[in-house]
Amino acid sequence: MAKTNDTDRMLDELVKGKNPEELLGEGGVLKQLTKRLVERALEGEMTTHLGYEKNSAEGMNTGNSRNGKTTKQVKADFGEVELEVPRDRNGEFEPQLVKKGQRRLPGFDEKVIALYARGMTTRDIQGHLLELYGVEISPALISNVTDAVLDDVKLWQNRPLDAVYPIVYLDAIHLKLRSSGQVQTQAVYLALGINLEGHKELLGLWVGETEGSKFWLNVLTELQNRGVDDILIACVDGLKGFPEAIETAFPKTQVQLCIVHLIRHSLKYVSWKERKAVARDLRSIYSAPNEEAAEQSLEAFALKWDARFPSISKSWRSRWANIIPFFSYPGAIRKVIYTTNAIESVNASLRKVTKKRGAFPTTDSVRKVLYLAIQKASERWNRPIMDWPAALNHFTIVFEGRVPN
Q: Most exposed among 180, 212, 333, 350, judged by the fewest C-beta atoms under 10 Å?
C-alpha cells in the first residue's frame, strides 16, 4: 500500500501545474518519462548481460565491459523518441526491449493495427498519426505492420473445428476490390456456427468473384476437411442451387430458408402503398402454428393477391420444402432459425469497417480488415443465443443419435 501511495505522490508531482501540451506534447512529460524508463531498462539488460553493475569492481578482468552508447530514433504511439542504447566492448549485447534494427517501441504496431481494425485506410492512418502525434510514417510501413495479421488470419482460417454444429448460417457480403486496374464487386462468404454450448463462432471467411452454389460447395468441403462431420440445420438465403450444394456435402442436414430474405424478395414486386398489407398477409403464413395452417394461409394469400402479384405465391410454393422445417420447433428455436439475424449482426460489424473504403487493393487487405473486425465483434459473443439447454434437448430428440453427449 505504501508503494502505491509513493507512486501516486510521484505522479502528482510530475503533472502538477502542467497543461496538456506540457504533459503530452513534443518534449512533454510522457515523452521524457518514456525515454528515461526505456533507457533504464536497457541499462538493466546490459547489467544482466555483463553480470555486474555499472562501475562495479566485479567487472575487472572479465573480458567485456560497457563501451559507451549509440543513439537511435524510434517511433512510439505519441511521437518519436531518441534513445541512448548502451554498447559492450565485444559487441555481443543484444537488447530485447528495443532490438537491433527495431525502429518502433512496443505498442506502436498494436496502435496501427487497432486503427486499421476500425476501418481506417492506410493513408487515413498515416494522416492520423502525423496530425495527432507528429509521427511521419510511410504507407509501406503501415502495410508491413498490418501484414503481420495475415499469419493470424491463416492460423484462424485453417484451425480445426468441432465435429458437430447444431446450426450454421451461410451468407455473403459484397465488397469492391481492385483487380488488374479495374474495380470489381466480389463476394465474401461467411459461415457462422452455433456450437454445442450455444455460442456464436465464425467458422471462416472466403473471398470469391461472385456468390454461387459452386463456390459454396467448395466452402462446405473445406469445413469438412477441417473436422466438421455434421450440421443439423443450415440457414441460408434463396440462392438457386444452395440447398443442393449443402445436401451434396452434408446429406443429412436440414436446410432452412431465411424467411426474411424471402419476404424481401416478395415485396420487390409490390408498390410502397400496398407493401404493408402484403407483408401482413405473408406474416400469417410463417407465423402459423404448424405446417398445415401455414399451407392454408398460403392458399388464402394466393386467392387474395395472385391476380395482382402471381409471382409471390409461386415463389413460396417453389421453395416450400425449405420453408417448412422450422414449423416442427417451438417458438424460441423458430425465431433463431427462420431468420438470419445472427449472421446479419456479424455482417453489420463488417460493413461498419468497410463502408468508408472505395475499393480494397488486394484480397489480403480484405482478409486483414474483416478478420480484425470479427475478433472485435466476437468479444461480445459470451452468451448463448437463446435458452440453449431447452433447445439442445429438443435437437437431441429431433436429431436422435446425432447430438453428442
A: 180
